Amino acid sequence: MSSLRRFAAGFVLLFTSACAHSLSTVNADTVVRNVNVIVWKDQQAQIIPQQSIAIRDGNIVAVDADLAVSETAKVIDGNNGYVIAGFTEMHGHVPAAVSFGDMPARYANDMLYLYIANGVTTVRGMLGYTNQLQLKEDIALGQRMGPTLVLAGPSFNGNTVESPEQAAQRVQEHVAEGWDLLKIHPGLELEEYRAVAAAAREAGIDFAGHVPAEVGVNVAMAEGQRTIDHLDGYLRFVDAIDRPVTEKELSQLVDMTVTSGMTVVPTQALWATLIGAGDADALATYPELDLVPEPVREGWLSYYPNQASSYFNTEHATVQQENRQRLLRALYDGGASIVFGTDAPQLFSVPGFSIHHEIRYMQDAGMSLEAIYYTATAAAAEYFDNSHDLKVGHVAPGYQADFMLLRDNPLASAKALREPTGVMVRGQWLDRASIDAKLNEIRAAYAATND
Ligand SMILES: [Zn+2]
């Protein structure tokens, strides 16, 4: 070693030992420097300025102001931007891996990419299909790009369940197949539902989703359903579908929810569309519609003209929607556990892009951006801690390296979440240029064929 290099090495040593935080070098393969990190203290967001995030093997190993990392680490300059944990889509859908109706072969990979392109780095898939578990495994092994998946199996509904005994048997099968949770759909009879619940509790697997009409939210809460999605069954329980729900009824519903510890996934934007309370003209102009295959797009665009589902409420959509928004507000004010979901991809809810519409609806209901981001990050972290031992939802050591880098502070405006500067997905960095290139490729693949 030349004397000059010895001098330089000694200088570095002296210099670093003078800094309280950087006595040792963190072994990392990637470091993101010069960022303001959004962290949670209880349900309050705090911005910690001028941080570095060190990542190794897909996980965050250190977040600190003065961080010495291995010389070989890839350095990403965050340019004084803002880092927020990747969002969790708690009611998403994931296509089958191999084929999916008339969809092109690339469909599954494209939908998975749309999630991560928008910083949605975890998806709880709420309807199982053949080969989906393969997708989950491919992603976990780094062999396919996509969000971390937690998957419900094929649904328990009036068609797939014939008796309480068969329902309990089916729970065993889903556990054996390796699904993470069970999906409840409408159509189950009360005794069938109770049989699913009992078998699920015994097997230690969650069940979640809808509340069948014969069951009721009170029973779902008592039986330990893990989440109620779409606020399903709430307004039906107090018979307030076609008239304004009263304050007394709202507080009854909130009390039941909080007392039982139920977690809800509101999916307000999607449900407004579904019941016919959306603005058809505005929906038709969502630019992200270019990113789904033409048959999907055409199906969505025909939904309003055809009023194409049993959920469509021609007479009372407006009052039903107002009730749903008041209910969300009441649940939020009452301290209920709320997680974030958009039911993508369905009905104008394009994976990842749909977060912007859901945020808008939640804001309209009266939630702050801070509260909304909490539902999409730290609240999901709590859920996964309790249910799946998955470390996502925080930018902190010990968590998966899943986060968005944004130019502006998202707590000041949700616009900051649009077009992230980059997205970190389990330690893999997607910069804006690569995201744009991929989105362009998907857009080209799904361009209209006949105009
Ligand atoms: Zn769904």
Bound molecules: zinc ion
Q: Write down the overall geometry.
A: globular
- Radius of gyration over all CA atoms, rounded: 23 Å
Question: Helix count?
Answer: 17
Q: List low-confidence stretches.
A: 1-22
What fold name goes in the CATH topology slot?
TIM Barrel
Helix content: 25-40%
CATH superfamily: Metal-dependent hydrolases
Going across the biggest sheet, name each strand in turn.
Answer: 3-2-1-4-13-14-15
- β-sheet strand percentage: 15-25%
CATH architecture, by name, is: Alpha-Beta Barrel
In short:
The chain is an alpha/beta fold and 451 residues long.
List keywords for this structure.
three-stranded parallel sheet; binds zinc ion; single chain; 451 residues; seven-stranded mixed sheet; alpha/beta; TIM Barrel
Please describe what this structure looks like.
- The protein has 451 residues and is α/β, with parallel strands linked by helices.
- The protein has one domain: Metal-dependent hydrolases (TIM Barrel, Alpha-Beta Barrel), CATH 3.20.20.140.
- It has 17 helices and 15 strands.
- The protein has helices spanning 3-17, 107-117, 132-140, 164-177, 190-203, 217-223, 234-237, 247-260, 268-275, 280-284, 294-301, 303-306, 317-333, 354-365, 369-376, 378-387, 432-445, and strands at 30-41, 44-56, 59-64, 74-85, 87-92, 120-125, 148-151, 181-184, 206-209, 227-229, 263-265, 337-338, 403-406, 422-425, 428-431.
- The strands form four sheets. A seven-stranded mixed β-sheet has the order 3-2-1-4-13-14-15. Strands 5-6-7 form a three-stranded parallel β-sheet.
- It is globular, with a radius of gyration of 23 Å.
- Mean pLDDT is 93; it is low at 1-22.
- The structure holds zinc ion.
- Zinc ion is lined by residues 91, 93, 126, 343.
